[in-house]
Amino acid sequence: MIGSKLPRVGTTIFTRMSALASECDAINLSQGFPDFDAPQALREALGEHAMAGHNQYAPMAGVPALRQQIAAQLDLYRGVHCDPEQEITVVPGATEGIFCAVTACVHPGDEVIVFDPCYDSYEPAIELAGGRAVHVPLDPLDFSINWQKVTDALTPRTRMIIINSPHNPTGSTLSHADLLQLESLAEQHNLLVVSDEVYEHLVYDGQPHHSVLQFEALRQRSFALFSFGKTFSVTGWKTGYCVAPPKLTAELRKVHQFVCFVAVTPVQMALADFMRDAPDYPGSLAAFYQGKRDLFCTMLQGSRFTLRPSSGTYFQLLDYREISALPDTRLCEDWTREHGVASIPISVFYQSPPLDQHYLRFCFAKSDALLRHAAEILCEI
Ligand code: PMP
Ligand code: GLN
Predict the structure, then answer these.
(1) Do 224 and 246 sit in the same domain of this protein?
(2) Considering the domain boundaries, does residue 3 fall inside one?
(3) Residues 249 and 269 in one domain
(4) Which end of the chain is more exposed for a tag (fewer CB within 10 A), N or C?
């Protein structure tokens, strides 16, 4: 018999809920992806590069023109200078980049601090590296980090902290003060940081995104991960990048070259063209998605849900305690079948889910018409 290396892992909740939504012909607000298309120029560029014969392996670290554009955007949006040669690696999705960063640095017996509710790909990567995830719960009301709890969770074996801001599944964001706390803890205890910033451009209400790259001491010990899937509405292109100082980048690439070797060539070239021609595009996303968040939240005002508008990501949590006492895992399935709206339960992202929590996560990266339709149904429940 095969002794499973991941005995507790099954098929992800995103795959299962999207399959159920499609089986029930339900409105799918579960798995996070837009129901509208990527910019036309970007899609055309992909076709052009494929037709022009750019279909063989790219350089291992990524197409140089794309790495240059990434560096230009980091400068423009975050005010940081990065060396495309030594600090930027294009990866086939942030998931792969996170896996490579963890695998490259976590040794058997190491502990890695993660925050619950925790994005599902982190812990399997830690476990496969022989490490142990130490789960620190976020505040149950506003999903902020309690830094005292983090300090209490540190041991001599703590090697890494994984943060995610804007945060999936709760839509919370870390503040400037949070990153200063992280910087000082990481320095004091010699920790590495993996910073999952795939929703960097989706921060609302005029707030800035705070990147680990903007804190010099933190940057020296961090892998920052980004995803073109979120920024350019191409989740199916599975392309992102990792920014890390040269020594960390070298270790990441050692793993990356044997996990995937390279990301897809014509996709990288199309992204490079689009970023060169439309550098302002990412800056338009916050207003665009905030409009969708506000539409969805406003429409739900007359419902029996309670909510606090997300400060980032394209996810909105709805508290259903006034409607049902059923567990979220059961309710999201029932509602997909009975009401035709699919969502994601958040208890599955906890090691020990809080007993009195009743949240479902809804993706609002959808057309206004679909959001209106979904909200009308939810208002009837
Ligand atoms: N991290 C978080 C928090 C995410 O929500 C997602 C994506 N859906 C990823 C990482 C993975 O991004 P990618 O599709 O580029 O692998
Ligand atoms: N990150 C996406 C979400 O949160 C899903 C990605 C996936 O299916 N692995 O919905």
Answers:
(1) yes
(2) no
(3) yes
(4) N
